[in-house]
Amino acid sequence: MAVSPMEQFARGQITALSHQLVEDLHGAARKQDEEAVHRIRVSIRRFVQSLTVFEQYLPESRTTKKVLKQLRRVMRLSSKVRDLDIAMLFLKKHRHPAGNLTDRRERAGLELAKALGSGKWPSRLDWSGHEGHVAKYRSVRKNPQAGLPGTAAEFFAAGRKAMKPERTWGEMHEFRLATKEFRYTLELFRPLFGAELETRLEAVRKIQQLLGDVSDAVSVRKLLKDVDGADPLRKKLAKKAESRRKSLILYWNGQFDFPGELESWKACLKADTARPKKTAQQKVRSRS
Distance between alpha carbon 214 and the CA centroid of its chain, in Å? Predict the structure, then answer.
């Protein structure tokens, strides 16, 4: 049975992401430093999002519950390591002893290393033989992107709800996760859109950054509860979280979700606006 252009494109994207994920997992297994932990978290999110977006094109044998369960465990363990790293860096910046966080970080790093070393990632994330070449598949633009305008509308609706002053951080955290999913979904279709999508992605990344700043302040504040003499720093973090939240709301209302912007997003993401880039040879032919 012939494979459709969309299926080839989907498998090509998943292949590239799976290769990057294996590389990052191996790197983090060797050294669980701040950069390596950040890379595996981003790689896992991107890869899992590709499986979600392209679910209908996946061979059943490739989406085993065991692999996804392992990746979820790595995410949980890496989250502990990341939060402790940020907390210890904050304490160092303010010249305050790390207390028991040092031992907790060491234990968390060892636990993460053990999980990473037992994954057999190359064989379980092997998508070789399923590569696709984006430039060939001109008809791809008629498929999933048709749903991207609706995805944008859902993101805007979630954002408008999250930006209400009475929302708690717990409620806003759900929007933080939605922001990541929205960004990584759009990035899957980067090859089919031009510079306009890159500009819009920058705006989404700005929102993600501000949400991340709030999240980091909240998480570190919780960790410092067990550190002697850290109450003044916890108050400082509470103020920082509130300040970043206000900056986020101002950015959303003033620069992101202004009148007509959602309609502009929908127009950008319509299926018939996505055009694969021409090769140099095609450009020469178009001029002749």
Answer: 16
Lowest-pLDDT range of 1-10, 33-42, 95-104, 184-193: 1-10
CB 132 within 8 A of CB 8: yes
pTM for this entry: 0.84
For the chain, where are the alpha helices, taking DSSP H only? 5-30, 34-53, 65-93, 101-117, 121-124, 148-162, 169-188, 195-223, 231-251, 261-269, 280-287
Greatest alpha-carbon pair distance for the chain in Å reads 75
pLDDT single digits (tens) 223-252: 999 899 999 999 999 999 999 999 999 999
Amino acid at site 80:
K
157: helix, strand or coil: helix
Q: Which residue has the tokens 């990584």?
A: 184
Please give the domain boundaries of the chain with CATH numbers for all domains.
1-129 (1.20.120), 143-276 (1.40.20.10)
CA distance 130 to 8: 7
Q: Is the pLDDT of residue 272 over 90?
A: no
**Which residues have CB under 8 Å from 211's CB, separation 6+?**
172, 175, 176, 179, 248
CB 210 within 8 A of CB 176: no
Of 257, 49, 256, 262, the residue nearest 152 (C-alpha) = 262
Q: What is the mean pLDDT of residues 40-50?
A: 94
Cβ atoms within 10 Å of 26's Cβ, excluding its own = 16
- Report angle CA 102, 245, 228 to the nearest 5 degrees: 25
**Average pLDDT of 108-117?**
93
CA-to-CA distance for 28 and 240, rounded, in angstroms? 30
- Secondary structure (DSSP) of 7-24: HHHHHHHHHHHHHHHHHH
Cβ contacts of 165 within 8 Å, gap of 6 or more? 249
